[in-house]
Design goal:
single chain; 3-stranded mixed β-sheet; 3 strands; mainly alpha
């Protein structure tokens, strides 16, 4: 006997699995210690929940569920420093509210420069948005032509500096080599903001397009990283490099390099060691 499964049944099964996945994801976020960025880790489950709700017709929810939706929306509006109700003074008290571990409301911190309500007001006055110092620096950098820049973080600055700016992120969030090197042992640090020390010859390598890293062990490792991250997608050399990286072919070399080059204990010992918001620029060679 053949039975057919209706489209509605398939959707219900898929929706149930999606809800289960969202619940598991939220449990994992709690298990690892919560969401440092005050909502960033919740982006994926929020998107999934919105997609599920978009397929539900209000007439199928019933009066009870509809009432709960109204309650949830009302609670959102009454939240402290709600995005829709944030005014021009939003963000002014963020640093005072940062706890001893450096956990802060990052959204509120940037609301004064990139919030929707504030941004609409600035746009009417003809002011650039977001009106943040990093965005201003990025706009100025874009007019300077191709540059190699070392700074902690990319964010606003990188977006407005444009693709012609090569940013070496000292926090290693977007640098394949620095991300695999140990963090500097600083007495004062903040989660998500771990400085790395630049290997000798690394900046010269990026500027010239040739591997000029002084330590031969790290240079061999960097060769494969470059192939894996910048080589032709399906080339034989790239696939072999990916295999070597995933089978720990360089593990001993990397461990020996880290042993012989222990991380600095003071940000001023890094090369270079820029203070916050500073930019070190060198014009890149053509090509």
């Amino acid at each position: 006997m053949t039975t057919s499964v209706s489209q509605g049944t398939i959707y219900a099964m898929a929706a149930g699995l999606s809800v289960f996945g969202i619940a598991l994801y939220l449990c994992y976020v709690v298990w690892i210690g919560g969401d440092f960025m005050s909502g960033r880790y919740l982006t994926a489950p929020c998107l999934g929940a919105v997609c599920l709700l978009s397929r539900v017709e209000m007439r199928h929810l019933g009066s009870f569920m509809s009432a709960w939706l109204v309650v949830v929306m009302a609670v959102g509006f009454t939240a402290e420093r709600s995005p829709l109700l944030a005014g021009g003074d939003s963000g002014a008290k963020t640093r005072q509210r940062k706890d001893p571990h450096g956990i802060a409301d990052e959204r509120d911190h940037y609301a004064h420069s990139a919030g929707l309500i504030v941004g609409l007001g600035k746009a009417r006055r003809g002011e650039p948005i977001p009106a943040h110092g990093w965005a201003k620096q990025g706009r100025q950098t874009r007019a300077m032509g191709p540059l190699l820049i070392t700074r902690p973080g990319i964010g606003y600055f990188g977006y407005f500096a444009g693709p012609q700016a090569h940013i070496v992120d000292l926090l290693a969030l977007a640098d394949p080599l620095l991300a695999r090197l140990p963090t500097m042992h600083l007495k004062r640090w903040r989660i998500g903001h771990f400085y790395r020390q630049l290997p000798e010859g690394y900046i010269d390598s990026l500027r010239s397009g040739r591997n000029l890293i002084a330590d031969k062990r790290l240079a061999m490792y960097y060769d494969d990283l470059v192939l894996a991250t910048r080589g032709p997608l399906l080339s034989r050399d790239r696939l072999l490099a990916i295999w070597r990286l995933n089978t720990a072919a360089h593990a001993r070399r990397l461990a020996d390099y880290i042993r012989d080059h222990p991380p600095a204990t003071d940000a001023r010992q890094a090369t270079p060691a820029p203070p916050r918001l500073s930019i070190k620029m060198t014009r890149r060679d053509p090509g």
